[in-house]
Amino acid sequence: xxxxxxxxxxxxxxxxxxxxxxxxxxxxxxxxxxxxxxxxxxxxxxxxxxxxxxxxxxxxxxxxxxxxxxxxxxxxxxxxxxxxxxxxxxxxxxxxxxxxxxxxxxxxxxxxxxxxxxxxxxxxxxxxxxxxxxxxxxxxxxxxxxxxxxxxxxxxxxxxxxxxxxxxxxxxxxxxxxxxxxxxxxxxxxxxxxxxxxxxxxxxxxxxxx
Length: 210
What we know:
The chain has 210 residues and is mostly helical.
C-alpha cells in the first residue's frame, strides 16, 4: 500500500485506478485514507474524478474516524485526509469549509506526531495565519519524533521551511535574506499547496504565492 501511495511515476489516470481499487480492497480507515488522498489530489491537480464522488467518500471517512487518536498511524491518516479535503474545498472556492477542515486538523496538534503530521499541522497553521501555534507544534514535535525511514527526513525539512516562514510572517521579516529562498523551496509540491491556501484564507500582510 505504501508503494502505491508513494509511486508518483504512474500516469495520473493509473494512479486514479489504483486508488479506487485500494479503496474497494478494505474498510480500514488507514487504507481508505491513502486512497482518498490520491483521489483528492488527482481531482485538484489533474481534473480527474468528481467532487460528488469525493463528497460521498468524505461522508464515509467522517463516519469512520478512528477513536484511538493516540495511535500515530491513525493520526497520520486523519490529518492527511483532513488536509486533502481542505484543499478540495479551497479549489472549489468554499473557504468556509476549507477553513473548517484545517481548524479540525490543527486541533489534532496536541497529540504526539510523526514527521508527516508535523507537515500537515504546521502547514495548516500557516494557511490559517495561526503562526504562534505553528511554531509551538513544530518545537514540540522536534522533541518527540522517532525516524523510521528516509522519507521522514524530507518531511521534517518541509516542516522546517513552513515553520520558518510562519516565524518570518509573524515577525514581519519579509526583508530577511531568508524570506525569498524559503518561498522558493515551498513553491512546488505540497509546499505550494499551503502557500495557495494561506493566500486564499489569510492574506493579511500581502500575498506570498508565486
